[in-house]
Amino acid sequence: MSEKVLMKGNEALAEAALRAGCDCFFGYPITPQTEVAAYMARRMPKVGGVYLQAESEIAAINMIYGASAAGARVLTSSSSPGISLKSEGISYLAGADLPAVIINVQRGGPGLGGIQPSQADYWQATRAMGHGDFHVTVLAPSTVQEMCDLVALAFDLADRYRTQVMILADGLLGQMMEPVVLPEPAGADARADKPWALTGTGGVRPGNVANSLCLVADNLEARNVERFRRYEVIRDSEQRAETYLVDDAETVIVAFGACARVAKSAIDTLRRDGVAVGLIRPITLWPWPADAINAVLDGGVVRRMLSVEMSMGQMIDDVKLTVNGRIPVDFFGRSGGVVPTPAEVEGAVRRLVDAGDGAPAAAGVTAGVAAHNANNGKEA
After folding, report:
1. Taking the chain, what is the end-to-end CA distance rounded to the nearest angstrom?
2. Edge-to-edge, what's the strand order for the sheet holding 74-78?
3. Which CA distances in Å does 352 have to 144, 252, 298, 339?
4. SS (H, E, C) 241-283
5. Could you please report the per-residue DSSP string of 33-93?
6. What is the model's pLDDT at position 82?
7. Is 365 helix (H, G, I), strand (E, B) or coil?
8. How confident is the model at residue 191 (pLDDT cuts 50, 70, 90)?
9. Could you give the residue ranges of the DSSP H alpha helices within 138-186?
10. Dihedral (C-alpha) 30, 36, 42, 44: value to the nearest 10 degrees?
11. Cβ neighbours of residue 111 closer than 8 Å, sequence gap 6 or more
12. Between the CA of residue 78 and those of 57, 284, 316, what are the distances in Å?
């Protein structure tokens, strides 16, 4: 029988990984995800798993490479600067087609930045997770329950497609406590068969090699083409998104993670005032849920979209690529670890509606800061 408990987001991620059959965790502490590693340090030895705090993020991701090559279900977690350090190793995992689950509980940047929540790793996760031609599947939870639920999916997708899957959360979700229904532990039959793994041959099959080095250009191209065929299957089969009050919406907010929670609160207030506004919440950031956006646009009611983010504007690129000029797309965000308030998002929507279809609205990060200052009696 499933349990319902009150858990912090980071701890829910860790417990869900254990119940999904995680064999090995390799990581290094960094705020605001350190509770993931601390929880795994307590629990992994009790369930017969391997926990090791590496000497660095670079060492941790290479340990992930080795354990995954041996067929283990592997997990590492970090926060923004730590993920940057892991990016070379993630590219090696992609080149060797080794499955792995990577948690990124984002913090403000660039550089050391701050430890407050952020969504400014969007480009990194969806565009530049490492060198070369490859994609990482990216899942974006918006609740602690969803953080828990997406972990099993991440392991299954990683094994099914021999790819790397990132759970892209943020410091707000990582530190938040909410009731969670924990899943039943996965049985042995839930694991994918891994005939490619380096488990020894026993003299009954040819030996396997896990290697990203391929010095013959035509052979490397063929490997990349095969990998991208798998990516096409992922793009066609694994898009996920939630919609909220979009059927009659003239303005649609696109937001993920914690920002989507803020946007829902703003939408509820705007709806009470008769403003026709809804929400598309991408759950997969790659593959990007273009089908959900196109379905809303095909309804012919939507007149504008607003990308709401905790960044200077990154996801808006994917929104614009999907919309392809059919309607205006605007942006509202806060940066540096500042979480937008429902009132600020509400104000951004009202400015768009008041501006009409032909005039630009005063949105963007500048408007967010101005609204914040005005609400606090400060000069913008």
Report:
1. 54
2. 50-53, 24-27, 74-78, 100-106, 164-170, 137-139, 284-286
3. 32, 11, 21, 21
4. EEEECCCCCCEEEECCHHHHHHHHHHHHHHHHCCCCEEEEEEC
5. SHHHHHHHHHHGGGGT-EEEE-SSHHHHHHHHHHHHHTT--EEEEE-HHHHHHHHHHHHHH
6. 97
7. helix
8. confident
9. 144-161, 171-175
10. -120
11. 81
12. 8, 19, 25
Q: Which two tokens stand for residue 137?
A: 């599947």
- Residue with structure tokens 């099914």? 160
CA–CA separation, 75 and 113 (whole Å): 25
Give the residue-averaged pLDDT of 15-29: 96
Cα–Cα distance for residue pair 46/362, rounded to 1 Å: 55
Please name each of the domains of the chain with its CATH number: 3-188+213-237 (3.40.50.970), 241-375 (3.40.50.920)
Say what the pLDDT of residue 200 is: 84
Query: For 97, phi and psi rounded to 5 degrees?
Result: 55, 50
Q: In terms of Cα–Cα distance, which of 315, 241, 311, 312 is closest to 278?
A: 241
Tokens standing for 129?
Answer: 């997770």
